[in-house]
From TrEMBL:
<dbReference type="InterPro" id="IPR000719">
    <property type="entry name" value="Prot_kinase_dom"/>
</dbReference>
<dbReference type="GO" id="GO:0005737">
    <property type="term" value="C:cytoplasm"/>
</dbReference>
<keyword id="KW-0067">ATP-binding</keyword>
<dbReference type="Pfam" id="PF18394">
    <property type="entry name" value="TBK1_CCD1"/>
</dbReference>
<dbReference type="InterPro" id="IPR011009">
    <property type="entry name" value="Kinase-like_dom_sf"/>
</dbReference>
<dbReference type="GO" id="GO:0005524">
    <property type="term" value="F:ATP binding"/>
</dbReference>
<dbReference type="GO" id="GO:0004674">
    <property type="term" value="F:protein serine/threonine kinase activity"/>
</dbReference>
<dbReference type="Pfam" id="PF18396">
    <property type="entry name" value="TBK1_ULD"/>
</dbReference>
<dbReference type="InterPro" id="IPR041309">
    <property type="entry name" value="TBK1_CC1"/>
</dbReference>
<dbReference type="InterPro" id="IPR051180">
    <property type="entry name" value="IKK"/>
</dbReference>
<keyword id="KW-0723">Serine/threonine-protein kinase</keyword>
<feature type="domain" description="Protein kinase">
    <location>
        <begin position="1"/>
        <end position="242"/>
    </location>
</feature>
<dbReference type="Pfam" id="PF00069">
    <property type="entry name" value="Pkinase"/>
</dbReference>
<keyword id="KW-0418">Kinase</keyword>
<keyword id="KW-0963">Cytoplasm</keyword>
<keyword id="KW-0547">Nucleotide-binding</keyword>
<dbReference type="InterPro" id="IPR041087">
    <property type="entry name" value="TBK1_ULD"/>
</dbReference>
Length: 657
């Protein structure tokens, strides 16, 4: 704040904001349908910080709108949105009334609109909370590119505007009249063309509903506004690509959420149940990178180009999502009207930008579908490699337990335990057969086919070999070029409007630019509808055919892993039963004279105890089976040296894995 030397008037000198106003950004054809999600969050954060500073100092702005929010670009390239124009601001404590009228019609609170515009309710007073309504209108404008309440005929239709904003129900965030004397169409959701993700919309919608509340009983306070915005901005954004719907989603999770909550957030946006979700990051299951108790704040960083991939086990189809109907390109009249022509060119430019965004979206979709396929293939390969190791370990352990079983059978062949050992041997033979034919052989077949021969990868590459993918045809670059041509023509017509009076030659060039807008519009629309979207739809069909096969393999691997775990559990049970029989035999051994400090245990039983310990460790900790087999062979040799080796070893099959 400075004071003039001559008349001592105080003036506010602010930084030069070269990025223009927020209104200028929204007026650009590129942002006709609102700002991108990342930019919206930036506006929300900076606007709220500015309002918080004003309230901390008991100030009310009273003219909040996009035109009074400036874009400042710092030296390091960061964007900061700043509040300006404090000509209508004044000191005002919470709930302190005021009766002076300031503001812009479209952003005025209904009570202020009634008094300032319609000249009614002259004795009405207001509080600082009227700024909240202006914030709500501003945020809706930023999110959608349009004002929330629009009567037919615009601001000239003042009575209808008042009716729209005063008759709306709680929770309604927009209302429009599309024809003269037509009905008012209210909505509680953001329009289909809004660029905000569905995850962000779910958070923004209640915020807008609270800010745009006219009932004094339900009207929000600044504390509610600050708390809600802080909650939105504090959430961690996790990017997920849902393969079955070929769609990118943003999960807004609390920092302290865990895996269960994260999967529930995904279910709300995709309808995929948590138990049916396959989540891959870097070709690995997400559960291998984060455990069930890991807080979301500790999750790996993601972005729209490097997301977590989601696959549904309940759905093996893959489709591309439906898009809102593309706005129509305008048709120029033959006559020259600089005002009308520039508006039509701006509309055409706006549609061109929408086409470009969709082409970029389909191009990203094409790339992520292919990455998702490769990630799934790699995950299957890693799973099969691990399963081969697991089944090999299971086969080796089965052989070790079989040797132990035969050893104990020989020791107790003339005892009461012989029947139990016979039953155990039968169970063990059945288990060995199941392990060999039901687990090991199918696992090795899958490993040979999909890891060694890579048939699943070959099948995928064959399916898309002849597809002209957007990334190969440089569709994004072509769309960018066509959009720039549309903008150049629009700028040319803008200069013509500033000239007002056109010479004959100027009129010819003016007509040429109109033709260029029309032709360029046709080209970019054709690029989207004829070249890009159909190809991506074909890619999705190829992914669907491939995923049906890949999902079958995945299910087989899951079953084999389950069977392997079940057999390991059964083997551990058999081993424990054998050990119990061995303990019973030891207690009956004639060498154990009494139980006490001087009791002696026969060496062969001590050696069996050592074998048991080795096997139990291997079953629980997956130790080196080769070492255990060697140790087992040495133990049996020691049994032979102790005098029982001849009887025992003659009964044991020496063939070992």
């Amino acid at each position: 704040v400075f004071q003039e030397i001559h008349n001592f008037v105080q003036v506010i000198v602010m930084e030069l904001c070269t990025g223009g106003s927020l209104f200028n950004l929204l007026d650009d054809p590129e942002n006709s349908y609102g700002l991108p999600a990342q930019e919206f969050r930036l506006v929300l954060e900076h606007l709220t910080s500015g309002i918080k500073h004003l309230r901390d100092n008991c100030l009310v702005h009273r003219d909040l709108k996009p035109g009074n929010i400036m874009k400042f670009i710092s030296e390091d390239g960061q964007t900061i949105y700043k509040l300006t124009d404090f000509g209508a601001a004044r000191e005002l404590k919470d709930n302190q009334p005021f009766d002076s009228l300031y503001g812009t019609e479209e952003y005025l609170h209904p009570d202020m609109y009634e008094r300032a515009v319609l000249r009614r309710s002259v004795n009405t007073t207001f509080t600082a909370n009227v700024d909240l309504w202006s914030i709500g209108v501003t945020l809706f404008h930023v999110a959608t590119g349009n004002l929330p309440f629009r009567p037919y005929g615009g601001r000239k239709n003042k009575a209808m505007m008042h009716r729209i904003i005063t008759e709306k129900a709680a929770g309604v965030i927009s209302g429009s009249q599309l024809s003269e004397d037509g009905p008012i169409e209210y909505s509680s959701v953001l329009p289909a063309h809004c660029h905000l993700s569905s995850g962000l919309q779910e958070l923004v919608r209640p915020l807008l509903a609270g800010l745009l509340e006219i009932s004094k009983q339900r009207m929000w306070t600044f504390d509610q506004y600050f708390t809600t915005v802080t909650n939105i901005l504090s959430k961690k954004v996790v990017h997920v690509f849902y393969m079955n719907k070929s769609s990118s989603i943003e999960v807004y999770a609390n920092q302290d959420d865990v895996l269960y909550n994260f999967k529930e957030h995904i279910k709300l946006q995709t309808d995929v149940q948590p138990e049916s979700q396959i989540l891959l990051l870097g070709s690995e299951h997400l559960e291998k990178k984060v455990d069930a108790s890991t807080l979301v704040r500790g999750y790996p960083e993601t972005d729209v180009d490097s997301p977590i991939f989601l696959y549904s086990t309940d759905n093996n189809n893959v489709i591309i999502p439906n898009e809102p109907e593309l706005p129509k390109f305008p048709s120029f009249p033959n006559s020259v009207s600089v005002e009308n022509d520039v508006n039509l060119a701006k509309l055409g430019c706006s549609v061109g930008h929408e086409c470009k965004r969709r082409i970029e979206k389909y191009s990203r979709m094409d790339r992520l579908l292919k990455v998702g396929v490769n990630e799934f293939i790699e995950m299957l390969k890693y799973s099969l490699i691990a399963l081969v190791e697991k089944t090999k370990h299971l086969g080796d352990m089965t052989a070790v337990v079989a040797e132990l079983s035969e050893t104990v059978s020989v020791i107790g062949r003339n005892t009461d335990c012989s029947k139990d050992m016979s039953a155990i041997s039968s169970r063990l033979e059945s288990l060995k057969l199941n392990v060999t034919s039901g687990i090991i052989e199918p696992t090795y077949q899958l490993h040979r086919k999909f890891v060694v021969d890579e048939s699943l990868n070959a099948e995928w590459k064959s399916a898309i070999r002849d597809k002209k993918c957007p990334c190969k045809t440089r569709s994004v670059e072509r769309a960018k070029h066509l959009t720039e041509r549309l903008r150049d023509s629009w700028q040319h017509l803008l200069r013509d409007r500033a000239t007002r009076q056109l010479t004959y030659n100027d009129e010819q060039f003016h007509a040429l630019e109109k033709i260029k807008v029309a032709e360029t519009g046709k080209r970019i629309k054709s690029l989207l509808n004829d070249d890009v979207r159909p190809v991506v739809a074909q890619i999705a069909e190829c992914v669907a055919d491939w995923y049906k096969h890949a999902q079958t393999i995945y299910v087989k691997v899951q079953y084999l892993e389950k069977d392997s775990n079940s057999c390991s559990h059964s083997l551990a049970g058999i081993h424990d039963h054998i050990f119990q029989i061995k303990e019973d035999l030891r207690n009956d051994d004639g060498e154990i004279q009494n139980i006490g400090a001087n009791a002696q245990v026969s060496p062969q039983f001590s050696l069996c105890q050592e074998t048991h310990n080795y096997i139990r460790n291997a079953l629980t900790n997956a130790q080196d089976i080769g070492n255990i087999l060697r140790e087992n062979a040495e133990l049996i040799q020691l049994l032979q040296q102790l005098g029982q080796g001849d009887d025992i070893l003659n009964s044991i099959d020496h063939s070992r894995l």
